[in-house]
Amino acid sequence: MNDMDLDAAQLREKILRLSARYAELAHGPKPFDPARSPVPVNGKVFGPEEVVSLVDSALDFWLTTGRFNDAFEDRLAKTLGTRYLLTCNSGSSANLLAVSALTSHLHGSDALQPGDEVITCATGFPTTVNPILQNNLVPVFIDAELPTYNIRADLIEAAITPKTRAIVIAHTLGNPFDLDTVMSLARKHNLRVVEDCCDALGGTYKGQQLGSFGDVSTLSFYPAHHITTGEGGAVFTKSSTFKRALESIRDWGRDCWCAPGQDNTCKQRFGWQLGGLPHGYDHKFTYSHLGYNLKMTDMQASIGLAQLDRLEGFIQARKENFRELYKGFKKWEEFFVLPEPTPGSDPSWFGFPLTVRPEAPFTRDALVQHLNRARIGTRYLFGGNLIRQPYMKTRNFRVHGETPNADLVMTNTFWLGVYPGIDDTRRNYILETVEAFIKSAAF
What we know:
Elements: H1 8-27, H2 48-60, H3 67-80, E1 84-88, H4 91-102, E2 117-121, H5 126-134, E3 138-142, H6 156-159, E4 164-170, H7 179-189, E5 192-196, E6 204-205, E7 208-209, E8 216-220, E9 233-237, H8 240-250, H9 298-307, H10 311-330, E10 336-337, E11 345-346, E12 351-356, H11 364-373, E13 379-380, E14 398-399, H12 404-412, E15 413-417, H13 424-442
Parallel strand pairs: 2-3, 2-4, 3-14, 4-5, 5-8
Antiparallel strand pairs: 1-9, 6-7, 6-11, 8-9, 10-12, 12-15, 13-15
Helix pairs in contact: 1-2, 2-9, 3-9, 4-5, 4-8
């Protein structure tokens, strides 16, 4: 049958079938060549299913959130065991939503106010901290600990003042922070907790899913992360009050909760009187929060929906790569501080962090440059000690005590990839390359 004789449904089916075949040919795995192939520190892993789902959503041409996003939100919420989950356009935006929601008027007297202090970690990712500054709150930086690379939880209580209202920290490279201590202090001092799980999807602490401890938690779906939608992120919570605030701030700050393309869900669209507006002002254009448009598109969500089928395998691959790299580096422990999971945790690792000991016969930078010349991807631990970053010079923040470990991370720490695209061959190539460098540097 000629394509011109096909109806829309038949033509759509053919397009999707050909899309799958194209993905197999164009994006199928390539054999590893140690003389040419890169070993990235992270990257997207996908197959025909993601391409077909993306094309399927494109053919709908529903360019904002729609049926794919609804399905993605619902399935991911069930996976995480949370009541409410809202997608957004990045993990950074997810953190902005989470911290901004702490300031919502919906919390009444519990809403954070400008000048309130928020405990965080000196070695955090910038966009874990930046929403604190953007909301005119004051970050209070605490040193990191090695070998978990998380906040020194033993220092938190001494940093708390009458102005302290919240704790906002990430599970570093997927390794859970000390949730027993953090949540105990939060209850004792009536502090809100935001769990940045952008690097930690699928990890657990004492058998409980990460993200289920705090008031609000966040995820990132950038291609480097556990699953990808390209750009994208999510916020999740068990609180209906937080959900309402998050949704409003994500959707321009509007008071209305109608989904895109819908009107009058509340059945009184022109029956409200809020703020200084006249009675009957259109509820779709009534704004109760300072908000943004941070929504995810249906095309992005369609990729994430297909990626969820791979999540369990992705997590297991990350754990295996971490275990094998640990075994390989164990014999060089005199040169490196090796990473350790937080006691009681089962991390879904984002990376394999290493700190070159100050007494080692080589530097972090020399090793990293050697690895990069061998096409092996590396990353420093984000911004190192954030209080040393140039953009912090004019910011309002406080540092509790000294930060020697954060300074050591800044000068001596880097991490290697454990993402599912790294297999036995690539992992062995990493270890062989490191071994050759150590032999040349140490003997």
